[in-house]
Amino acid sequence: MELTMTQENEKKRILEDIAREKVQQIKKFYTHLFIYSIGVAIFVSKKYFGLPLNFWPINFINSFFMWCWTFIIAVQAIKLFMKDQFLGKNWEERKIQEIMEKENTNKQNWE
């Protein structure tokens, strides 16, 4: 009885650690997204409204920089929010079932 309680407590602690890590990743992503939105606002102000924002850190924000930054944000979002949907446990189980069904169908066809 004592052993199972210890195992349950250990599982609960591990799940809490995983949840905390996920929350930290989401927090970092939203912070990065906020900074990105400020960068987009500055880029649009420079590019389309012609504001003279040509001091040191701002003068490096150009189209290439914004495309790269957008790609990085998109990759982060996919890794954070869609990773489990595409390559998670459910996906693995569905694929295994699909392959097993194909194998069973092929065996039945040859018999």
TrEMBL record:
Pfam families reported in the protein's UniProt record: 2TM (PF13239)
Domain 2TM residue range list: 19-101
Superkingdom of the organism of origin: Bacteria
InterPro entries tied to this protein: 2TM_dom
Keywords assigned: Membrane, Transmembrane, Transmembrane helix
Transmembrane segments: 29-49, 55-75
Name assigned to this protein: 2TM domain-containing protein
